[in-house]
Structures are given as structure tokens and as C-alpha cells.
Amino acid sequence: MLRAMLRDLRAHLGRVAMTVAAIVLGVGFVVATWVVSDSAAATVSSGSYRTDLAAVVQARPKNPADAAMPAEVVGRLAALPGVTRAEGVREGYAALVGKDGKIGTTSWAETGGTDWDGSQRFALTAGRGPARAGEVALEKQAAEEAGLSVGDSARVLLGGDRSDTATVVGVFAYRATGWEFDPAVAYDEATATRLLRSPDAAPAAAPGFARVELSGGDEQAVVAAAKAALGADFRVDSGSELRAKQAEAAQSNGDVIRKALLAFAAVALMAGVFVIANTFTMLVTQRTRQFALLRAVGARRAQVRRAVLAEAVVLGVVGSTLGVALGVGLGLLAMRLLPVVGEVAYVVSPWAVLLGYGVGVVVTIVAAYGSARRAARVSPMAALRTDAAVPRRSLVLRSVLGLLAVAAGAAMVAVTSPEDLTEPKRVLAMAGAVLAWVGVLLTAPILVSTVLAPLTRLLRSPRPVTRIALRNAVRDPRRTAATSSALMIGLSLVCAFATVGQTLSDETTAQVRSAVPENAVVLRAAAYGTLDDTVRTAALAVPGLTGLAAPRSGQVEVVSARGTAEDAEFTGLDPAALGTALRPAMLAGDADLRRGVLLAERVATRLGAKVGDQVRLRFPVVGADGDVTPVEVPATVAGVHEGSDLMRGQLIDDALVPAGVLRHGDSMYAVGGDQAALRAGLERAFASRPDVLVQDREQLLDDLLAPYQLVLGLVYVLLGAAVVIAVFGVVNTLALSVLERTRELGVFRALGASRALVRRTVRRESVVISLYGGVLGIGVGVLLGGVMQYVIMANPVFGMSVPWLTAVVALAGMGLVGVLAALWPARRAARADILAAIATE
């Protein structure tokens, strides 16, 4: 009997190939994910970290802005017993200017410069290390982005209005100790001492070391000696601890990537389940009389069921084998494309292979189980009938469970509220959305009959093609639902993420356009840097400038009159600039910093503060000796504002902020009578400062929205696998529909229908199924996205922004999918022999 089943598989290679393709894509995604995450962790653990470190020493400064250690500390550490090398490491502001005159984004400018040494920090890939003034070595990725190589002249910005020009003598890959960013440039020690400093440091401040790296034979002895010599003001980490933390961080990052990608793989596999189930439904339907004959000659139900499941196992093993091979190849390709320092460790663990086979076989068996049970229920008497059909279960239980799931999911979302959306409530709301989504999948067959059946009665066109196509789709709602559900899974998630992205984009756009006047010119720091007082002074000197807002943010503790306190951010501003260069979205009171502080809505709610109340602002002030002392400033609540990314936290008059409070600002907003003239003046003022970007409001918006578009683009690509798999499901459904209607199509042709009419009918049915799946996916996806943005941003569920462009493009794409998927089935239906089709039993 098993041989007979396998022989039948060989007789239907076309549909078997579609099933295998669905398995291969899903399994390949899973295995590639596992290989990439394992290989990334193994690469860090097997050679991209340093082995020459016994210990690393850092200061525990009282002043967070002053973490540099003096040279005498290096001398003390070098004299310790067991220490063979004590190397002080300098860090400072440095931004590499590319050939295009722009600042790169591969390094953080605040610590973009360091000093060259002979340790394992640097792995030369070209040239040599810098040895004298006028020479510089560049980090590999930074050099590639800047378009520079050995022998070129490089310009390096050093903070403020300082810069340096040097010849590139080497290119290196950098091995971090675990916490620092990769520097873009490296100077010789004397030049680094002279040029590199923190942008917050005073010009006359003595240069120091960011850390000291110690080498020695006995690591434990070196660590103990360093701790004893320096005391509690310094932090000493052993080399083995740093390596273990790096390996742990790599493993953790790999797990995060693995979980995220496995979620997309699960979506692809879920779509594959419907395709596989449809394929087995097709195979079982075609062999109804065969199963009946087997039952008539003595085959038991269990034997028939086991035979169908054996077919599933064979397909699962074949698909899993190909999927594992595909996943291993994709993993190798991904690791070669990733920027990794040193040798790449490529790992294919047994777990990845076993998981691939397990997933492929189990998914196939689960998808085929329903068809196996239906095949086993075929009556032996069906062998005597010419219209034998596989018995089908009632849809009542499935529909009831689906409706209950939808209702329960909606209730789980409804019991939460945006005013008090704690972490457990966020999880509850998201779980409710997923449960409702599953409920829609369960009720899909009933939805097919409910939505499509009335259309067959409404459409009374003289041309019956569409009406016939609708009736064919409604004829087997379970199969049509499975096909449309496969499409709906991928498309609903695409629309859900598009809804979240559109909502974030619209909210960001509304915030920026509300806060920044249309005629404003924006100054922004490049390379994740800051805008210091030199930028403010240069901007104020530009003719035509009438207002300049230079927000700088820091930390403050707000204490209410009742004594309750809230740690929060503050933004210091010039009162004259508020309302002209920047406009906060006020909820209560006036936007006048001369009258007092403007509290953020969240802080005002938690403190129970309202306009007119007295509060105390407790600032952490750093003294001349480095001690941090809280300084309280009394203030009146002049208003409450919504808050935004441009004006974070409490808005405070710059004059109220005590000296010594650490603040950071990366943007300034200028206004004047003539925007074009003002922008031209600012561009001239900063022509030699590529670390300062001059933009208008719309360019600022483009930069702020770019990360959203990048993430969404990646999501669309990953979810595209589910849509591709779903296309196979459409082809399978149409092929099954054509096979079941062989006699009907023969009669249709005998009555005068042309081949072109038959092709149009099949194509129209495909388009109907695809568009139905598209409409269902868009509707469910927008609602799911509404819950997702509610969980993320605490906006009302129905306050989401609908991504109309994505929806229209997706619907048009589904129509195209329907046309393409019908090419082969429609051609086969049109070419059927009339007499043979009529004679078919």
C-alpha cells in the first residue's frame, strides 16, 4: 500500500513540487537564522576579541564629564609587580571628512579619535601605523565610507572650529575591549595628546587617558595589585571577565536576532501550512475512488490514514533536506556580507539541522493530518459511484471557536486603557490582538460564504464570467478560505507594520510641523555629535537672523509642593526663542518661560501639578573638585505641554539652570525675515564645518523618518517570503478547481464556450480569491497595526493612521498575483479535450 501511495506522488509531481517549495522556503529561513546567530556568536568567541589583556583600568569620576586619568596613574600601574606593559589609551572628538565633503556615520564622533599603539587593538589591513605628526591611520569601514585609502590626504574635524589634515599611512580593523565605539582615526601618541580632547573639556584642560590596559603573565595577580594600588576611585576589570562579557553579549545579541528572524520564519511556515494542506486536499480528492476501492478490498481506516501521513513524511523529509541546504547557503552568504573584524567562524550546529528537519516534517504532517482523516473516512461504497467525494466535517465547531477567539481578543484589548498602560497590560493587549487574528483565520470559511455568496446574486451582468468565478470560489469555502488565509497572513502583517510606521511617521511629522515654523532653518550635528557654543556664536552673527533656539537637554528631579519627586529630563531654552523659533504644543497655561517652568504632561500627571503650583527643580551640579551636588531652584508651573523629541521633558529658562549642569544639544533652530537669505548666510558661515548640517524643516523631517522607512523596508522583504509561499497556494487551489470541474468544463465547451472564455473564467476566479485574501489581509492588518501602535505609543487603538498607499499597492499586487497564478491552470482548462472531458467519470 505504501508503494502505491509513493507511486501516486510520482504521478502528481507538479503539485508535489509546490508543496516541497513551500517547505523549502520555510525551513531555509529557519536554518539560515540559526546559522547566522550561531556563527556571529562563535566569531566573537573565537578570535575577534583580544588576548593580550590582563586587566583594564578606568576611573570612577565624581564628574561624569571628566573620566580621563593623568599620566602618573599609568606610571604607577607600570611599576606594579607582574605588569609587563601598561598602555594608556586616549580618546577624543574626531570626525573624518570624506571626499564628498561629508561626515561619515560609521563611528561616533565623540570618541572618534584615539592614539596608535602596538597592542591587539589594531589589526592592519593596509599600510602601517602612524609614527609622526602629519600621519593618520583610518578604521576600515570609516575609510571605505569616506572614499579614502593609503596615500590620500584626510581632513579630520576635532571639535569646535578645529580641524587637522594628515596623510593616510594605514588602514586598520579595530578590536574593542567591549564597551567603546570603534574609532575612525588613530594618531601617533604625541599628536593624539596634542589634538584629541572631549568637546566638553576646557581648552586648557590637561589631556588624560580614557583607560589603561595592562598586560602580564598572572592575570589574577595583576588585577589584585591594581586594585590595591588605586583603591575604590578606579574600576579594574580582568581580561577574562571582559572576554566573557563580550562572548555573553555576542550570544545575547545573536539570540535577539534569532528570535526576531524566527518570528518571520514562523509566519512563512504558517502560510506554508495552508499551501501544504491544500495540496493534500487536492491529492486526496483526486484519489477518492482509489481509497474507496482500497477500503472495499479490506484496507482499514488506519491503514489509509497512515499511508497519507507517510506521503507527508516523505515530502517533509525531501523538502527539509533541500531547505537545510538552502538555509546553510544563505547563512554562509549572510556571514560573508557582515562586517566582521578578523576571521569569520562559520558554524552549522547539529541543532540547526535537526530543527530544520523537525520543523519541515512536523509542519507537513500537521498540514496533511486533516486530509489523512478525511481519506480514511471514505466509504467502500464510494467505489461504485462516479461522483465520489471526500466527506467533509462540519464548519460549526471551527466557526464557533473562531468567533469566541475574536471576542476574547477584543475584550483583552478593551480592558486596558492608554492612561495606565503598564507593561503587563501591554502584553495583554498584544496577546488579545494575536488571539483575535487567529480567530479570523478560524472563521475564514464562514467569511467566504458570507462575503462572496451575496455577490453572485448581486452581479447580473450580461457577461456571466465573474458570476461563474464567484460561484466556483464559494463552491468549496474551506479550500478558498485556506488559500485566502495564506495570502492574508503575510499581507496582514505587512499592513500591520505599515500602519505602525505610518502612525509613527504622521505623529513625528505633526510634532515637527507644529513645533518648527515653516520658515525656520535648522542646524544639526553630523556623526552623532553635538553643537557647541562656537556654533551658536557663529549663527548669531549671521545677518537677518531674528531668533535662535538652541535647546540643550539634561537631567533634573522635579519635586512637587507635597514632596513627591520625579526624575526626568529638562530642556533649557532662551525664553525669547520659545514661540518664535520653537513652538511647544501647550495643554494648559502659556508658553512663557519668563513666568516659570513648562512641565511635560507625564510629569505633571504623576506629580498632580497644575498651572500656578510651586515646584522645586533639583539639578545635579558638578563642582570644581568634581563632586556632584544637588542644587534646588524654586519655580512656578507656567504651563503643561505635550512634549516631543525636539523639546524633551521640562522646558526651563536657560538662566535658571545652574552652572556645572551637564547638558547636550544636537540641533538649533533659526528664524529670520527672509528664509532663503538666512539659509544662504548660515551655509556660508558653516561652509568649512561639515559637522554642522544646514537644513530646512522638510529635510529635518526626512532625516527623522529615514530610520522608520529602513526598518519597514526590511520587514517587507522578510514578510515577502510568506506572500511568495501563498502564491503557490493560489496555483494549487485553481489546479484542484480545474480537476474537479473537468466534466463541467467539457460541457461548457460543448455548449459553445471558447477556449478564451474558459481561460477568462479561471483567471477571474483566481483574481476573486486573491482580491478577497487581499481585502481580508488589509482589514485585519490595519486593525492589528492599530493595537500595535496603541501598545507602543499608548495612542487610542482607532487613532492609528491608515497606510492608504500601501493598501492600494497591496491590493493591486494581489490582483496581479491572481492573474499570474492562473496562467498554468487556465491554460490547462482551456486545452482540455471536449469529448474526453464529458466522458470523465
Produce the secondary structure layout.
Blueprint: H1 2-11, H2 13-45, E1 55-59, H3 71-78, E2 83-89, E3 91-92, E4 95-97, E5 113-115, E6 122-127, E7 135-139, H4 140-146, E8 153-157, E9 163-174, E10 185-187, H5 189-195, E11 211-216, H6 219-230, E12 234-238, H7 239-286, H8 288-296, H9 301-337, H10 350-376, H11 396-414, H12 423-442, H13 444-458, H14 465-475, H15 477-515, E13 521-525, H16 533-540, E14 545-549, E15 552-559, E16 565-573, E17 586-589, E18 597-600, H17 601-607, E19 614-622, E20 628-641, E21 650-653, E22 667-672, H18 675-685, E23 692-696, H19 697-740, H20 742-750, H21 755-793, H22 804-821, H23 823-830, H24 834-839
Parallel strand pairs: 5-10, 7-9, 16-21, 18-20
Antiparallel strand pairs: 1-11, 1-12, 2-11, 3-5, 4-8, 6-9, 7-10, 8-9, 13-22, 13-23, 14-22, 15-16, 15-19, 17-20, 19-20
Helix pairs in contact: 1-9, 2-7, 2-9, 2-10, 2-19, 7-10, 7-15, 7-19, 9-10, 11-12, 12-21, 13-14, 13-15, 14-21, 15-19, 15-21, 19-21, 19-23, 21-22, 21-23
Transmembrane segments: 12-36, 261-285, 306-332, 344-369, 395-415, 435-459, 480-500, 710-739, 769-792, 804-824
Pfam family, one: FtsX
Domain MacB-like periplasmic core: 17-215, 480-662
